[in-house]
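PROTOCOL LOG
Step 1. Enter all chains and additional molecules of the complex.
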Amino acid sequence: MRAEQAISIRYFTLLGIFVAAIIAFTLHAIEMPNHLQRPEFLTGYVMFGLMLLVALLNVRKKLSMVPIGRAAYWLAGHAFFGVMLIGLYFVHTQTIWPEGGYERAFAMMVYLVTASGLAGYALQRISPRRLAAADLEIIYERIPAELAEVRRKVQAIVLESTKESGADTLGRHYLESLSWYFRRPRFFVPHLFGLQAGQHWIRFQVQTIERYLSAAERAQLTKIEGLALYKDKIDLHYALQSVMKYWLLIHVPLAAALLALMFWHIIAVNVYAR
Amino acid sequence: MMDPEKFRHDSSRYERPNLRYRCGRGAKWGDPCPLGPTTKGQCGGTSECHPAKVGDRFECRRPAYAGGPCSDGPKSDGACSQHRPPCRPRRTIRSVRGILAVGAFALVVAIIAVFLTVSPSSSRAITSAGPLTGGHANFTAKSGCVSCHTPHNGDVGGWVLAAFREDDLTPNCLTCHTFGGDPRLGHNAAAETTPRGRETSCTECHTEHKGESFDIVMMPDEACNACHKTRVDGFSVNHPQFGETFPHAQRTSIVFDHTSHFAKHFLNERVKDSAPENCTTCHEMADAVKSVKPRNFNETCVTCHGDAISSRDLVLLRLPEFSENLLDKQKVMGTCGPTLDQWNMMMEAMSGEEGDMEEMKSMMTGEEEFEPVSTEEASAVSAYLLGMAPDDPETYTKPMQEFLNRLIEEGSAPIAELIDQRAGKKVSNRLLAGLNPELVRRVACAWASNVEYSPPNDPEFGGWYGDGLELKYRPPSSGNHSDPVAYEWALFAAASQGEKDEVLVDFAEVMRKVVLSRTEGVGACTKCHAVSDDGKGGLEIEWRYRETKANPFTRFDHQLHLTLVNPEGVNLVDPSAGCRTCHTVNDQAQYQASFDGSDPHDFQSNFAAIKKETCAQCHNRGQVRQDCKTCHSYHFKPGFDLRMAKDAK
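Step 2. Run joint prediction.
Step 3. Record the structure below.
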């Protein structure tokens, strides 16, 4: 525990130094025009360096075996420097919406990358807490197998019930209603927003069929209900883990496009404005 | 809670989300096969295991989490006996993300490349940082980006070089913009007192491509403080006090003593009714900016000083006292005819009186004792023209009498010849405009005959005239303020400051003092027009109102401020209102004495220096703006090159 605290202190000290340096630099850049100096190149190249630095998070994730700091710190640094970049961007351009088609495309990309990054960061902070409260842990990649297993179990219960009772009431209800639910994750959007639509649906289905079942069948139905509620938790995991992964499909390509725009911007300003 | 044992290494698959593909069955929410897809994206789950050969037999290698070794076991050729139909593997999220990222990067690069190559306008769209300000957009429309950015039309090599080379745009700016001094130096180093400082470039202060209506000349106070050693945080805060004579850096071009006029002349009962009511009676408000020009002579001064011009004559020639008469009397009489006295004597001689005949002979041959009709000195003008001391008869008698002989024979031509000689150019036609040669000849004849010239009538309308011992010019009393002859003589006198001939220098000075005398000079020109050093060793008569050249970087709009003090509605004598709110009359100033010399900077103004506190009454924090640019400009005499307009067509 002490070692972890020491590491945290070290990293946060380093982060603090970076923060102080960037704030000092920003103040200096704001002051530069007052001394007939142009801050654009200085702020531009600092932004360039920071952009490459935040882009290195992706490299860090691929080089998980190399001991270059905990991924959590990298992520924190990525988010922090990303936000600082927006501030530097305003100092660099001295406007929130520049003139010129290319500059506006660049600005739009900066805002989209930052917005998607902030949204993603918020998701990364909020979703794990909700998942931890779900009383279930499951790796995202294992969800299909887990759903298949749940589905097998439910089908086995239905078959057993049919054999034992000789009635097909539960079997037909499974085919007509429950199979839809167990076929794949359901209630994606309600789960995202913390709604209980899945559980309500299960209870409705159980209440609907319950009155037509014998006592033995009801016992089997209770088992099915238990599995359905278990699947509801898996569905919650699926929904939350999906958005935690899929937001990067927006953020990363936008960031890549921004890097491409940035490279051309650097070439253009060196040719035209230097 | 999920059973933690469920995902033990021997009871569940090892998930590899970093692989590019995942099982197609799992993607369709079926049970993923144990082997999963290959790295190339082919289905690897058509069999349930890859049997291993142990000794001479094949053994099933189906993992425990998939049910363990199957009961059928491998086939004899080592193939798995459990077959499944193949699936269609799907890309993992990570793989899709990578493709999208690379695709987005490539798409942007491709779009840039297309824009660069399709047309000049698309190329401009991808390289321009934004629209130019209105003026620049207009004047660069024809040449485009290359008007300012030289590398724009260059090849790839040029671009690479440009990327690593400082490209100073200032020379391109200077193809259209002109300044009164070096554009690269502080304040264009216009004034002698302006420190040269370091070299600057236009783009240090001016930024383009910020939109059509962007204020390209905007300059914060801090930018001024970047160079100026005395830091100013606001006019009312710590701006230095104005100079001791501010804003009067030199005496005025028109001599007008406000103090004496306010305190004495305007109160005089004789002219009281003609006196101006307020400052704007004499000063023109309509085009007042930094200076508030006085109205012209005919609108203001003429009321009281209308006759001053025609009251001051120029004495061109004056018959001096001769020590002896060296003139050939017979020749003079032959050319000019006898004088009245000579005519009477001839009449008496012809009547037969012997004594008279002897007297006439004596007069004709010059044998009688010579008594000069004049006891005066020669005029200062003729002394300079002839190069002779006006007060030494021994030296000037002979040359003056020879000059008279020439005047008798040639009229005004000898005078014109001398004037042109002294001026070094042909100016006599203007200086002697209206001078009748016959008048000169008659005056010369009279003087050669040792008698005063009697004009046929009084010179009441002005012009050239002879009167006794003098040949003079009087500006006509026609009310014409700018008399051309008086004007030319004043210029001639001023130009004599540059006389190089050592013999003539002193005579020139005397002549200048007479012609340019503030109390006696011809036409009274210099009574009101200051005679000042021209800065090149010569003298300059300040004919016109001179806008101040002092404080070239300070501006003040009188027009804006006049509306505040309402000078038209304020009585001139009210010392606390109108223009006198700021311009306080200094009663103690030796204003007139300031014009005794020719140094325009050795002066005392009629008005006390304006103090900073006067301006700070309004230009203060929270009141009227007080930033540097309110009163100061940076560039000196900014202008435009005509080529700019031509290029824009």
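Step 4. Note key features.
Residues 249-294+558-610 of chain B form one domain.
The two ends of chain B are 82 Å apart (CA to CA).
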